[in-house]
Amino acid sequence: MAKITLGCEPVVGSLTPSKKRDYRVTNRLQEGKRPIYAVAFNFIDSRYFNVFATVGGNRVTVYQCLEGGVIAVLQSYIDEDKDESFYTLSWACSIDGIPFLVAGGINGIIRIIDTGNEKIHKSFVGHGDSINEIRTQALRPSLVVSASKDESVRLWNVHTGICILIFSGAGGHRNEVLSVDFHPSDIYRIASCGMDNTVKIWSMKEFWTYVEKSFTWTDLPSKFPTKYVQFPVFIASVHSNYVDCNRWLGDFILSKSVDNEIVLWEPKTKEQSPGEGSVDILQKYPVPECDIWFIKFSCDFHYNAAAIGNREGKIYVWELQSSPPVLIARLSHIQSKSPIRQTAMSFDGSTILSCCEDGTIWRWDAVATP
Amino acid sequence: MSSKPSLSASASASGSRSEHSKDPTTNKLPETSPIPRDISSVIDSLKKQALADRCVSIKERMEENRQRLVGITKHLHKLSEERRNNRNSDIDKSVDLLTKRQRDALDMQNGNDANNGDKASHCSQEDGHVSSAVLLGSSIAVKNAVRPIKLTEVKRLPPYTTWIFLDRNQRMTEDQSVVGRRRIYYDQTGGEALICSDSEEEAIEEEEEKKEFADFEDYILRMTIKETGLSDPVLEALGRYLSRKPCEVKARYEILNKGEKSVVGSKNGVIEDISQTLTSYLDKDLDAALDSFDNLFCRRCLVFDCRLHGCSQDLVSPAEKQLPWNHLDEDNIPCGAHCYRLAVKSESIGMVSSPVCADFEDKTAPSSDGAGPHLSSRKNCGPSSKRRAKSCQSESASSNGKNISESSDSEIRPKQDTTSTHHSSSPPKTRLVGKCAIRKRNSKRVAERVLVCMRKRQKMVASDSDSILSGRLWPRDMKLRSNSRKENEDASSSSLKKVKPSITGRSRRKCSPVQDSNKLVEGEVPEGQMNEMINDPPASSSDDTLRKEEFVDESMCKQERSDDKSWKAIEKGFFEKGVEIFGRNSCLIARNLLNGMKTCLEVFQFMNCSENKPFFRAGDGSNSMVEGYSKVDFNETMGNEVRRRSRFLRRRGRVRRLKYTWKSAGYHSIRKRISERKDQPCRQYNPCGCQSACGKQCACLLNGTCCEKYCGCPKSCKNRFRGCHCAKSQCRSRQCPCFAADRECDPDVCRNCWISCGDGTLGVPSQRGDNYECRNMKLLLKQQQRVLLGRSDVSGWGAFLKNSVGKHEYLGEYTGELISHREADKRGKIYDRENSSFLFNLNDQFVLDAYRKGDKLKFANHSPDPNCYAKVIMVAGDHRVGIFAKERISAGEELFYDYRYEPDRAPAWARKPEASGVKKEDVAPSSGRAKKLA
């Protein structure tokens, strides 16, 4: 863990809610008995900004948020393997713009569901263990990246079904990878973090030809010359425990460990010597009672706010880009007591969904402040 | 020129600055001894200011980042809008189902809204409701309409951790160590998190936290002292505040003061630096210049930055010095424009005009590559075509001649040319040792082969020049080719007459890297300077850099400057090395070691005056690269040849005798040692640096290992492993001393073991056939079986054999990271918990860990009744693990071997009823996992 030295103190947000915005529960669904690990709005295609999906157990369900707190079920998928337990999902789309849903879990198989045709598009077998997170490249939404327990991060092309790159090896993660995210504008860059307490930033610039090649590959996907990216461009030790969620905020990184806070920091890489560099911790967003791992936060489309649940079923909504950070709201409900594994903020942040360990989905809508 | 003014400027600037910075302290010192409260208040105010500054800077950066992000998200939003629009354009063809469902839901909601209109009110007054009330009727209605779609089952893979394929072992890098690191292990089955760390190790962590002063601490330090002056209370207060000792603070302050000066200086120093780095090599002596080379170059693997033996190995220089380079064919051809021979001539003739000189350079640009010089000479358009053609002849012939001379040289001093031809230096050459004997005996047969080889090469040369010149087949070129062919014949016949054995394919192969380097060099250098560069194909790497640095100006005004330049330390160093390598041959020394620094003539003069010796025979200094030139003075060479051969024979005879005596003495003790240590793990070998025969102090002897070829001690060392001299037995049984000692044969050491390319074209006497080939070098030669990875029939992953093999056949190597036993203990704790370990005891120092790096054989499962066995084998000084067939294995069978756990540590599935003397430790990854999963 980086020791905070004098003059490099981060700005810590105050836990007093600013009452800028207020949220009320407008709906609650019980999906099943099994925990729901992920929920996500579709930010890839503006037609579906009000469509979201959840995964829990061997189910993938697609919903729509309607006016007045109504949640409509659109589609539902069940893996025939009862032992499958999906951990993560992400929206993607094919080159033709067909909306895809990418999900993965304990089996290590990535399922590409063609929601436009309601059928399985492809299944990616390759990861040696469970998949902890999948993210989509917003600039090229047929590229997805997956973080796995097998200590690797893999880049896939959902359109052609090719595993393009494997980020692991000599400089790779030393334990399960829990989270991964694409840089919003630098298409070559990804950040991953995991149980080895580090956040690693990788560049695929030198391997970009393979990414391009994957779009035109017509031979068997297994014959594609998958490359190993063994060395990250930056390794940050910001936390001293499992790092279970990281997201880019522009060129900064938001990451959280199990120590009750989200940390915003700037990676300062050195051009000449990759792998080295320093971390400047800028801000901290405290999240009380958030000391178990596999709790992920979510941002709205414009990264104005982030919502994160905690162990006790409460949600903290932070204004991300103000300095010092402002707590927009602290959401609690008498019946929401189960750990919230993930939240989803809608396009404009007016709706927050949370999915819980007990298999419930909660919908919170912003109330116009008087 | 430019560096001088900047130097003075920097000096003056730093000078003024230093006065400046001294001023405040000196002024303040007398007036101060402020009350501690003042000091702390100063510090506090500084701190407050610092914090405020920090907040402001963060705010600014956040804002900056926000602005950027706004643009990015706008762009992303545009993209998502475009996707909608794209779809809308061809939406009529087929509405995708998601959109359809979306519309349906919307319609239904509108309908539902009419039915249960109270729903909206439900939602808004949530808090006190019971759970059933929150579940809304409308959503349930919609949900009911959806029928789940089944995703067909895909069989999952057995678990594994992503691993990197290794074809040879690697030593662990520092950052991979888990020793001293806190690790958290999450046990999925138990749901518990375990923190693995030892108290002693945490202490180390604490120490590491002593960090350098951050920028801001520096600032506070400087400002405080500036304001309150430098005094003990100030330092104490600062120390308290910065949680450091006052002396540390003071030391830091002094550094800061100095640093301030140097910052100014460094700006001006940049230009200076550049010029300095250019000449830095030249200012050092040879040893210093070679320092990094010695550190980074692995003399065992002959590569830089060896992953197996690591950097900064002890430098072991062999006690037996090689005799200098001997060249057979002597000629009076000058090596270049500045050859001492020319100088001698020109003195007698008079002035040699420079263009002619240049042409001479052209002409004799000696290289084994027939093509390069062709082109260059044509480009340079020398005045006389006849001369040029001649040079071409010599060049094309030189490839032959060089081979001849080299191979014969290498018989005499097999190793010496490794030094001269750095790029191509490789084990094959040294392996010639072993072969000499056979070749000698079969000289007649060899002579026949020589002829064959020569013919082959003629074709090769011809085709070479064909390919290059095919575009422009001039009559002259044709003539040239025929000439060269003729020359070849000459050369070959001459070599036959001399009964010079063994023009082997290897020597030819050796040539090709040289050619390559030729071409490379050509590519790099502008045309005009080409010749100089070509002159030096086998330059060492350091030489390369030097050459590049010095080249430009050197080549321009070499002639003028040559005389007034004194010899630098490094040049002397090069010269001495050169004498060691080439003997008193100024041409070769100048070309190979002092290219661009000293000319042949200068070397020659230096050699003469430094050694105070009279002119030696011109022939000795002749250009060996042109030694194959057709106008060989037969008489002279013959004479030399005879003399040399006799010396050669004498030495061989002695060697052989010695070898014989060693053998009987040596094997005994070694065998004994092996039997003594049967149950002990092998000892890691580290080369000793003994310069005489190893005595009791020898590191190897103390360590309990044999001396190997990498040791410094002479070959007569009693502790050396002698190798074998099996012939018909092919080193396949315990009759072979190497085999018996769990060692692979080494062509450098064993008498009759050598390496071939399999088809016999590259130097193995074909007449001997397969029956004589050593079969105990499989790991060295990577003669392994194809192993396939698949789902095991037993559990998890398994390794399968592609083709059937016989008993005791070598299947492959078990590779991995080399880690220390301590490291293995630490890693093993976690592996054991996961019940998946790839640790393999290698020797007393190292354990192989194939967890993240290894090969497919790591997936072979454990069986008490296995079809394979593992064996630790010493290969060229390194211990390696080979997997061998215990019985005949047919194609497609799964491979099993006994992991041989220590009986008390073995997991239940690997426990045997009868605990035998086991020494290896390994855990079945897959079987282990199977246990867990079952």
TrEMBL record, chain A:
Cited SUPFAM superfamilies? WD40 repeat-like (SSF50978)
- Gene Ontology terms: biological process: heterochromatin formation; negative regulation of transcription by RNA polymerase II
Q: Does the keyword Repeat apply?
A: yes
Q: Where are the WD repeats?
A: 124-166, 170-205
Cellular component annotations (GO), alphabetically ordered: ESC/E(Z) complex
Q: Where are the transmembrane segments?
A: none
Matches recorded under PROSITE patterns = WD_REPEATS_1, WD_REPEATS_2, WD_REPEATS_REGION
Q: Which UniProt keywords apply?
A: Chromatin regulator, Repeat, Transcription, Transcription regulation, WD repeat
- In the UniProt record, does the keyword Ligase occur? no
Q: Which family does it belong to?
A: Belongs to the WD repeat ESC family.
The protein's name in its UniProt record: Uncharacterized protein
Q: Which organism is it from?
A: Vitis vinifera (Grape)
UniProtKB/TrEMBL annotation, chain B:
Which keywords appear in this protein's UniProt record, sorted alphabetically?
Answer: Methyltransferase, S-adenosyl-L-methionine, Transcription, Transcription regulation, Transferase
Positions of the region Disordered? 1-41, 107-126, 364-439, 479-516, 910-934
Q: Where is the SET domain?
A: 785-900
CDD domains, alphabetically? SET_EZH (cd10519)
**Top-level taxon of the source organism:** Eukaryota
Q: Which reactions does this protein catalyse?
A: L-lysyl(27)-[histone H3] + 3 S-adenosyl-L-methionine = N(6),N(6),N(6)-trimethyl-L-lysyl(27)-[histone H3] + 3 S-adenosyl-L-homocysteine + 3 H(+)
Query: Pfam families annotated for this entry?
Result: HTH_CLF_N, preSET_CXC, SET
Bias (Low complexity): 1-16, 418-430
Q: Name the residue ranges with Polar residues bias.
A: 391-407
Domain named CXC: which ranges? 671-770
- Bias (Basic and acidic residues) occurs at 479-489, 910-923
Q: Which PANTHER family match?
A: HISTONE-LYSINE N-METHYLTRANSFERASE E(Z)
Q: What is this protein called?
A: [Histone H3]-lysine(27) N-trimethyltransferase
